[in-house]
Request: fold
Amino acid sequence: MKFGNINIKNSTVNFNENNFDVNSKVITEFISQVKDIGVDKVKSIKNHIEDIENNESLEVKEHRKNSLKEFLISNGIAISQSLTASAIFELLKFLYSN
Reply:
């Protein structure tokens, strides 16, 4: 296990635990799977993206990003543990922006 970005402030220690690596292979595999998903599911993904973008509450956005990740998993998309819900949202937003 590696630790990076250690920050000590007001006697509180904050650090990022780097257990997983995000690399081009992980992203390429994810994009390849998403491109093979059916048209009806693409519409649902776009609706999820729109819901996330149109909501002002950060808490609700994070909840909906996790819902989007769960939607993908439930529809057969294998997701690496290194991809966070926010990263998945940004990738999908990029893929489906028109």
In short: The longest strand covers residues 2-9.
